[in-house]
Amino acid sequence: MKLATAVLAAGAAVSLTSVMVGAARLRQDARHQAERNEAVVARNQLDWLAQMSTNADLAKLWTPEDMDVEEYMQLLKANQLICTLSLRDRLGFVRDGDLPFFASMVMSSDVCRRYWNRFGDLRAQEAEGGERAEHFTRVLDQAARSHPQAQTTAA
Predict the structure, then answer these.
(1) DSSP annotation of 109
(2) How does residue 7 score in pLDDT terms, banded at 50, 70 and 90?
(3) What does the angle CA 130 – CA 26 – CA 87 come to, to the nearest 5 degrees?
């Protein structure tokens, strides 16, 4: 091989490597931006839940007609906990295989099970089409159904 050909081939290889590294960097930057956006949106939701679950006058505006305001505020607190776990899961802070344990811990709380009984179907509808969200919802639903208290209530 001539020296000029070897230099051109080496230059092409370096250029191709640079393009691939640049493309990988762009994908990584886009993923990080999406994670930041998700965290900001989740923070807004968690702030709203915090306000709604501590301010009865505000909660009255949103309370379903067939529900007591105090009960609704308690269910919103449960939702806040579930949303926090969901965000941790979506951002990858829940290790593979640990979600059932966390879901079981969440569903050991009576108020979380009451929330899930009332709004679990709505959460399942919201999760449709998102593989990770659907998995999260299935795991929480299984934990709610598997809890000994839920089984005695159903019997």
Answers:
(1) S
(2) low
(3) 35
How many CB atoms neighbour CB 31 within 10 A? 10
- Give CA angle at 87 (27, 141), nearest 5°: 125
Res 152 pLDDT > 60:
no
Whole-angstrom CA distances from 23 to 18, 30, 47, 117 are 8, 11, 36, 46
- What are residue 94's phi and psi, to 5 degrees? -105, 115
Write down the pTM of the prediction: 0.79
CA-based end-to-end distance of the chain: 82
Residue found under tokens 């966390």: 102
| Alpha helices (H) in the chain, listed in sequence order | 3-52, 56-60, 69-90, 99-107, 110-127, 131-146, 148-154
